[in-house]
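REQUEST
  id: r-88c1
  op: predict_structure
  target: Heparan sulfate 2-O-sulfotransferase pipe
  payload:
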Amino acid sequence: SLTPSQLNNTAKAEMDRLFFTRCAKVGSESLVEFMEHLQDINNFQVDKYGMNKKSKRQLKPLAQAATAGYIYNLDEGSVYIEHIPWIDFNDYNLPKPIFINLVRDPVERMISWYYYVRNSYRNAIFYRNNPLAPLKPTAWFKKSYNDCVRSGDPECQYVPLAVRDVEGNFKRQSIFFCGHDQDCLPFNSPLAVQIAKRRVETEYAVVGTWEETNITLTVLEHYIPRYFARAKMIFHNVKAMVRRNFTHEYDFYYFCKQRLYMQYIALKRTELERMNFP
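RESPONSE
  id: r-88c1
  status: 200
  body:
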């Protein structure tokens, strides 16, 4: 039978640095904010350098070496966060850090990305920094994801094994685990996914999902206590502090849920009656 120690890659780390190879659009901002809250409690430091770098889907060996070297030169008890595929530190004769990441339902990621790139705040910053860039038409901002897919818009076409992208939309979640080899590039590739699975099994301490927050925090807390001790308790304490000011709003929320369930039960009861009494 499986034991926690059999699934614990934290012990394989060769230096006290946490490397969050952050997938795009998986709810990672919530985990980043939470780690910033935990750093004083658990005596570690979140390094911001990687979060300010322009994202690239893959890096040349020299750039990988520079990133690995930067992490190696951080103080012990440091967290490095970047939208970047897994790096093999052994290739650069450097000790291995603790790897973590998050994943999300692939289609939900794409829907999130679709509306993220249409975000007015994001676009205001882009055009402020790139005043000569052509403005997107109003129709582009207003088009729904549903219409984008149904109209065959290239932005919403996800062609299996495609290497070149019409739009840079980070649709390859597996590439963050597969790495920087050419085999990792084809979209929805069985080979790339198998490589990514092997990396998760052998290299990553924890790959969680914010869709299962409680489970993810529990596993992080027990498998990487150096950074995530008391994570679940602190996370829920913060929520409880906020909930205290929402007592009547919660009363309304639960009332609506109860009514929805009653409507659903009534529908099912009618269906059962039809089946039993034609």
